[in-house]
Amino acid sequence: MSKIRIALIEDHDLTRVGIRTALLQKDEIEVVGEAANAVEGLKMLKKLQPDIAIVDIGLPDKDGIELTRELKAIIKSEYLETKVLILTLRDNKEAVLAAFAAGADSYCMKDIKFDNLLEAVRVTYDGNAWIDPAIARIVLQQAQQNPPSLTSKSSDHQPFVDSSESAEHQQPIESNSLTERELEVLQLIVEGCSNAVIAEKLYITIGTVKTHVRNILNKLCADDRTQAAVHALRTGLVE
């Protein structure tokens, strides 16, 4: 069985060592590289091409959101397959939406429990989005109360555009356009569950889950599960 190859980009030495130590407790995981800033991190990722890059959002030279944007551009042009798991202390809606708009695959808080971090790694490795449940609740609450804004708070950055939804080109999706079962599946997608976990929780087959996911993506005009999750959080489709 091939190992999950992970690279860490985190400027705090103790945090980086702690994450590495925790991950290496599992034989299925291999930490292939580390960096303490965005410049060195991007060089490392291009060279090593890990399965997952765990990226701190608050790097000293360039934030993790900008790094994610640059990495995803490289991945697209060079057909690489590295996925990005953002790890951060920021729990505000703007940071989360900006990260996903930049192309992040998953988003976790730094105080995440070890078992949940492993789950996030596995879900991300399988090609699914994992959103920290605490973040999901915060984004949902704020999305219901305030109009969404994807503009970065820092004047050093350009506004991030959420490719999953454009008010100028797409009509709002009403919750009644999704079936009750599709809403249940969407809720579990937002919680970061893989198809296998969704199947187990809803007592259905993985094939049926895949059909529901495909229907959800079509109805929400989303390219992938991450876009569907962001849309659901921003519009309050799930509770």
Q: What's this entry about, in short?
A:
The protein is an alpha/beta fold and 239 residues long.
Description:
With 239 residues, the chain is α/β, with parallel strands linked by helices. The chain contains ten helices and six strands; from the N terminus they run βαβαβαβαβαβααααα. The chain has helices at residues 13-23, 38-48, 64-78, 93-101, 114-125, 133-145, 180-190, 195-202, 206-220, 225-235; strands at residues 4-9, 29-35, 52-56, 83-88, 106-109, 130-131. It has a six-stranded parallel beta sheet with strand order 2-1-3-4-5-6, with helices on both faces. α4 links the parallel β4 and β5. α2 packs parallel to α3 (64-78), α7 packs across α9 (206-220) and α7 packs across α10 (225-235). 42% of the residues are buried. Residues 147-173 have low confidence and may be disordered.
Q: What labels would you give this structure?
A:
239 residues, alpha/beta, 49% helix, globular
Q: Can you lay out the helices and strands and say which pair or pack?
A:
Blueprint lengths: L3 E6 L3 H11 L5 E7 L2 H11 L3 E5 L7 H15 L4 E6 L4 H9 L4 E4 L4 H12 L4 E2 L1 H13 L34 H11 L4 H8 L3 H15 L4 H11 L4
Parallel strand pairs: 1-2, 1-3, 3-4, 4-5, 5-6
Distance between the termini: 38 Å
What number is the mean pLDDT?
A: 79
**Main structural class:** alpha/beta
* Count of extended strands: 6
Estimated helix fraction: 40-55%
Order of helices and strands: EHEHEHEHEHEHHHHH
Tell me the strand percentage band.
5-15%
Radius of gyration: 17 Å
Strand order in the sheet with the most strands: 2-1-3-4-5-6
Tally of separate helices: 10
Low-confidence stretches: 147-173
